[in-house]
Each structure stands twice: as structure tokens, then as C-alpha cells.
């Protein structure tokens, strides 16, 4: 909804000066086209990516995005996600480092999730309920419908609404005064329309839960959490309540939609959910006294009586807290306790090793990080589908993967495999395909790239194989997901360590382009052009030609973007 979209913008100072010009011109009551909505979304996303609160955390992102992708697959199967929206919209999740509980759908298929939300949910089901609700705002074109409604208001009314929404996250009382000052009647009609959209998003979102593998009880328990927070008089830490008005009718509707005999509580409260909730709380920048409180949870009288899943979450939280407090020996002890707790639970064991690598990198200990990553079971080759055929191709689009094997199964699904290794990576699809449950090693690759970047030049010799494999796998990853800015940036680090500066610069440019900062991408590509002109290496000719092509494309996009300001 627009209120959520504007609440996201409220935290971003650069948007405030030009918020009144970001709305596209539309005819009286005309609905925004998908192209117009995507352009608006791209511009908003660029500002979020620029903001210091944008969080590029590979571990937490994999968790949240995995749920998002499963819901997208369910929406596609149910027909609520049309082929047009799937193709035209971004469908990207952005993590925001903010302790307040909020999530918001943005124009063009972007989804903002604040760490405060992930930190308070008690299960994957509860988090999935919020994401399914917000996804339904996008698939039902609520933002376009809202802006069409606004096009019938006067500029003064629209300005009052935008200013009120921009002030909402900072000062709710001031926001209310601004809204009333603009036109109480207009705002009331806006809120009434929003309630209709909320009910529609509730029902559509709830229908996505079973096919995505989640319990619909997550909707009910999340509503109960919101209701409890509402009763406690929201102190500003739950802005989701302000942008998504909670009513007894909505709660009753969701409760009535649970199938007879269905569990009334979320089903997936497992170890990984508890560990990721702990991670989100730590990434929300808690005060030192809060860190001390979290450390003490491991010695609390009721700790032994907690479930194994909960104890895993507490040890995860304690390890990160101890490390943040500078108590590195105690952090390692907590990590050992976490390892002991998660034994025989492969997914949780993987998360424990990723945490060990993450903390080692925070402490500038790249060798320890690489050792932790080496303990993670590598991906196994996926079983070939019956009737599949393979063909070796050269990638002319990116120039990064020299050879790849594309496998087409009888169901017409595609798989891509780097010819230099035996691991079949996830299927090449804009939306998760039939192998949605297949695990991904993206966090391992990003953390390995960070570790390799921290190594001194003299220390790289011992890790030549790791460097080569990480580079190869990252190249395959960005071919599959060309809008993965984090993967492009990680690739740029690895290419620099491989003494390939020209390709490293281009990877940096692609990272900026993936975050819709086309002007910055142009700057990096021009730097690449300058380097290529002065390079004595004749092998750089092919890379230079790619840079020339990409520069022309980025210049055109930057020009179009500047014209919208």
C-alpha cells in the first residue's frame, strides 16, 4: 500500500526533497501501467540501496529471500502472479537495518523487510504470513490503484498526504496533524480504501501459505502478536501497525479461514528460524546493556527447560553478543556450545559454521573463516531429469563464464552447470522453479570472497584452488541472477585478487547497475575504458569490447533516470 511505501521513504532523507515529484503523471483516475510502476520502484529502490540502513547480509538475506521465492512460486501456481507481472516487476527483497517492526511493499515488485520484524517473529510461518500479505499488495496492483485514487485529489491534498507519511516514522503525532491539515475527508477516504486492500491482501496472502509449504496458523499468530502490541499502546517500535490498521474483523476473518482441525499455532519454529531471529536482533544495532542481557540468557534459571530449538537461538545470540562486546574467547565458547546443540540437524549445523566464518571475518581472521567454510558439506550434483539433453555454450552476454552446460529436462526446466566443476547450481529462472527446495551456497561464496579479499598477497598462494573455484562459481551465479548486486561485488573482490583489474572494475559497475545507480555504473565503466586503453595486455581486448557495450547501455539508462528527477 502507498502508506507503507511512503513509510519506507520516510527513513530516507534524500527522497524528502523530491517526494512530490516522484509520482508519475496520470490521467484522471487512470491506473498506473506496469512500466510506470516499475520505473517508480527502481527510483525508490536506488535510494534505499544508497541509504546507510540498507543491509547487505548474505546469511539473513538467504533466509528471508528463500521464503519470498517459495511464496512467489505458490503465487505463480495459483495464478495470482501473472506472467506479465513476473516479467516486468523486480521481485527483489531489500533488508533494512532497523529495530522497528515493519515490512513494506514498494512499486514495481520491491519488498522492504526491516530486521526488527525478523527479530520478533517466532517462526518461519509468521514471517511468511507478512511476506505473503505484502506480496499480495503487489500482485493485486494495490499501489497502482492507490495512486490512481490520489490522481483525483488536488496537489495540496497529495502534498499533505506525502508529508504526513514522510513524518510518520519519526513523529506520528506530527504526521497526524499534517494529514488533518490537508483534508480530513480526503484522508478518511484514503484509509477506507486501504482497509479494503488490507482484507484483500489478507485473503490472497493466506491462500499462498499451504502451496508454499507454510502453515496458515502463521497468519493468526502474527495477528495476535500485532493485537497484543496494539493493546500495549504502540510506542513507535511497531510502525507496521500504523501502515496496516488492525481490526477485530480482520482477525476474526483469518481465524475463520483456518481449516477445521488445523493447528492453531505455527508449525515451523525450528532451529534455523530461532537462529535467524537472533541474527536479525543482533543486526538491529542493540545497545551494549542489551548485549549483556542476551549473554546472561545462557545462565538463566529457565535456560535448561527451554526447547532445543530455543537454546540454539540463545547460543547464536550469545556468540554474536560476546563478539560485539569484544570478548572473543567467550564468543568462541558460545560457538562451541552452539555446535554441540545443533548436532544431527544439518541445516542448523550449516548456519553455525556460517556464523563462525562471519565472526572470524569481523575479527579480521580470514584463515579461520575459510576453515569454517571448508567444514560445510558442499552441494551435491542434482539428479538429471529423465530425457534431459545437454549442450555446451559460451556466454556472450556477460563475458564472464567461458563455458557452461545448459541442461533441459523433459519438463522444459533449465539447469546451468559451470564446466569447471561437478556441482549443479539452482535452475536458471527469474522465479524459483521446480527445485525450489534445493539449497544454495550463495552465503558461502560471498563469505569466501570476503575472506580472500582480507588475505595479504603473500597468503594467497595457499588458497589458489579456493580462489579459482570461488571465482568460477560466482561467475555462474551472476549469470543466473544478473541483478544480484552482492554477488557482483563479491566477484569484483575475487577478480582483483586474481590480478584481473579490468574485469574487477566491470563487476563493480554491474553491482552498481543492479542497485539502479546507473550514473555510478557509468563512472566505473569509464574507468574501465581508461584502463583498457593503457593496458599492454592484448587479452583485455574482449573485456574492453564488453565494457564499451555496457557503457552505452548504462549511459542511456542514466539519461532516462535523470530525466525522471
UniProtKB/TrEMBL annotation:
One GO cellular component term noted in the UniProt record for this chain: membrane
Endpoints of the signal sequence: 1-19
UniProt key word DNA repair: no
Enzyme Commission code: 3.4.24.-
Peptidase M48 domain sequence ranges: 88-257
Name of the featured protein: M48 family metalloprotease
Cofactor: Zn(2+)
Keywords on record: Hydrolase, Metal-binding, Metalloprotease, Protease, Signal, Zinc
Keyword set includes Zinc: yes
Entries under InterPro entries matching the protein: Mito/Outer_Membr_Metalloprot, Peptidase_M48
Coiled-coil region: none
GO biological processes: proteolysis involved in protein catabolic process
Gene Ontology MF term list: metal ion binding; metalloendopeptidase activity
Amino acid at each position: 500500500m502507498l502508506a507503507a511505501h511512503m513509510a519506507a521513504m520516510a527513513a530516507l532523507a534524500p527522497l524528502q526533497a523530491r517526494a512530490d515529484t516522484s509520482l508519475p503523471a496520470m490521467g484522471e483516475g487512470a491506473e498506473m501501467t506496469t512500466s510506470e510502476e516499475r520505473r517508480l520502484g527502481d527510483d525508490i529502490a536506488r535510494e534505499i540501496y544508497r541509504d546507510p540502513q540498507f543491509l547487505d547480509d548474505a546469511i539473513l538475506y538467504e533466509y528471508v529471500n528463500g521464503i519470498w521465492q517459495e511464496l512467489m512460486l505458490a503465487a505463480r501456481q495459483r495464478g495470482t502472479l501473472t506472467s506479465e507481472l513476473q516479467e516486468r516487476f523486480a521481485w527483489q527483497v531489500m533488508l533494512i537495518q532497523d529495530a522497528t517492526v515493519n515490512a513494506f511493499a514498494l512499486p514495481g515488485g520491491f519488498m522492504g523487510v526491516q530486521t526488527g520484524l525478523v527479530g520478533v517473529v517466532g517462526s518461519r510461518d509468521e514471517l511468511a504470513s507478512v511476506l505473503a500479505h505484502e506480496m499480495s499488495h503487489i500482485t493485486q496492483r494495490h499501489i497502482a490503484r492507490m495512486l490512481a485514487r490520489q490522481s483525483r485529489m488536488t496537489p495540496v491534498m497529495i502534498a499533505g498526504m506525502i508529508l504526513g507519511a514522510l513524518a510518520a516514522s519519526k513523529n506520528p503525532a506530527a504526521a497526524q496533524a499534517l494529514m488533518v491539515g490537508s483534508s480530513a475527508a480526503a484522508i478518511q477516504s484514503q484509509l477506507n480504501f486501504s482497509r479494503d486492500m488490507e482484507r484483500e491482501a489478507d485473503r490472497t496472502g493466506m491462500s499462498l501459505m499451504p502451496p508454499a509449504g507454510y502453515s496458515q496458523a502463521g497468519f493468526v499468530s502474527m495477528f495476535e502478536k500485532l493485537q497484543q502490541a496494539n493493546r500495549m499502546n504502540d510506542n513507535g517500535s511497531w510502525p507496521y501497525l500504523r501502515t496496516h490498521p488492525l481490526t477485530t474483523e480482520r482477525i476474526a476473518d483469518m481465524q475463520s479461514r483456518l481449516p477445521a482441525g488445523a493447528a492453531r499455532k505455527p508449525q515451523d519454529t525450528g532451529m534455523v528460524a530461532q537462529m535467524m531471529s537472533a541474527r536479525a536482533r543482533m543486526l538491529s544495532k542493540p545497545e551494549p546493556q542489551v548485549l549483556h542481557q542476551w549473554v546472561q540468557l545462557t545462565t538463566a534459571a529457565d535456560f535448561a527447560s527451554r526447547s532445543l530449538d530455543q537454546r540454539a537461538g540463545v547460543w547464536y545470540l550469545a556468540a554474536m553478543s560476546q563478539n560485539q562486546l569484544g570478548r572473543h574467547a567467550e564468543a568462541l565458547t558460545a560457538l562451541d556450545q552452539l555446535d554441540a546443540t545443533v548436532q544431527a540437524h544439518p541445516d542448523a549445523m550449516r548456519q553455525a559454521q556460517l556464523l563462525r566464518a562471519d565472526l572470524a571475518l569481523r575479527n579480521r581472521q580470514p584463515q579461520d573463516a575459510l576453515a569454517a567454510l571448508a567444514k560445510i558439506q558442499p552441494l551435491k550434483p542434482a539428479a538429471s531429469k529423465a530425457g534431459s539433453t545437454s549442450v555446451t555454450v559460451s556466454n556472450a552476454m556477460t563475458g564472464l563464464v567461458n563455458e557452461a552446460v545448459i541442461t533441459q529436462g523433459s519438463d522444459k526446466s533449465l539447469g546451468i552447470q559451470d564446466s569447471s566443476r561437478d556441482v549443479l547450481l539452482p535452475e536458471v529462472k527469474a522465479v524459483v522453479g521446480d527445485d525450489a527446495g534445493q539449497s544454495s551456497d550463495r552465503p558461502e561464496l560471498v563469505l569466501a570472497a570476503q575472506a580472500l579479499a582480507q588475505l595479504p598477497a603473500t597468503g594467497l598462494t595457499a588458497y589458489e584452488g579456493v580462489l579459482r573455484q570461488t571465482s568460477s562459481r560466482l561467475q555462474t551465479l551472476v549469470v543466473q541472477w544478473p541483478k544480484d548486486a552482492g554477488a557482483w561485488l563479491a566477484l569484483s573482490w575475487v577478480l582483483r585478487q586474481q590480478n584481473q583489474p579490468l574485469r574487477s572494475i566491470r563487476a563493480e559497475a554491474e553491482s552498481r547497475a543492479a542497485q539502479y545507480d546507473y550514473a555510478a555504473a557509468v563512472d566505473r565503466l569509464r574507468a574501465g575504458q581508461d584502463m583498457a586503453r593503457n593496458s599492454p595486455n592484448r587479452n583485455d581486448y574482449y573485456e574492453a569490447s564488453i565494457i564499451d557495450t555496457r557503457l552505452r547501455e548504462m549511459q542511456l539508462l542514466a539519461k532516462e533516470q535523470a530525466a525522471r528527477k
